[in-house]
Amino acid sequence: PESRGRVGYLTGRFSLYPDLTVWENLRFFARLYGMKGPEIAAEAERLLGWVGLLPFTDRRAGALSGGMRQKLALICAVIHRPPVLILDEPTTAVDPVARAEFWRLLKEQARQGRAVLVTTPYMDEAEHCDRVVLLHEGRALAEGTAAELKQRLPYRMALLTAAGDAGRPASRLALAEVAAGLPGCRWTAPLGEGVRVALDPAAPLDPPPGCELTEAPPELEDVFLWLTGAGAEGVQVG
Q: Which architecture does CATH list for 2-121?
């Protein structure tokens, strides 16, 4: 169909040919979209240089690292210059450094005028997007910019941590129990060595003995927990 040439698609699961080299994979997908020899060579060299894969053109795709595989998959998806790029959880099982680099590349694609649609289970990645749709069980819960969605949260977020040695909770589980007993607590979620707490807006930030309680900016994950009903009073998440 005519629309196929207008869309680039990339899945979270590696879907290229592991026994073909980087160059062979790129040439194969270019030919699928009707590109010819000289055009393929010029565009492939530009894209390989863009993602830093020029030194690896003769390496088999199956021998690449996870981040390099996703870079190769990305340029295979855009070699025919589609106006729309769809990515389905593209950074699953990719290390944090490679994830950051991959999102830098996606932002460059968007700046070039390409519409980029991404699904991701990582709320911090959704912060990169101009528009966010929160989905749950196949249903759209809310849509807007990340800032707009966070402004809708009807709770005050705080972080509870242990302070000093005297009277401090003995474990994070004990800290979570302390957090759940705070006035106006709606839900708690572990975060590093502390516990993230959703409080009623009028609830005081009075730390219990042996603890510190500081206000924290809302995050998209907080909005998601609220919209999915995980924010019921007394719920401990995670």
A: 3-Layer(aba) Sandwich (3.40)
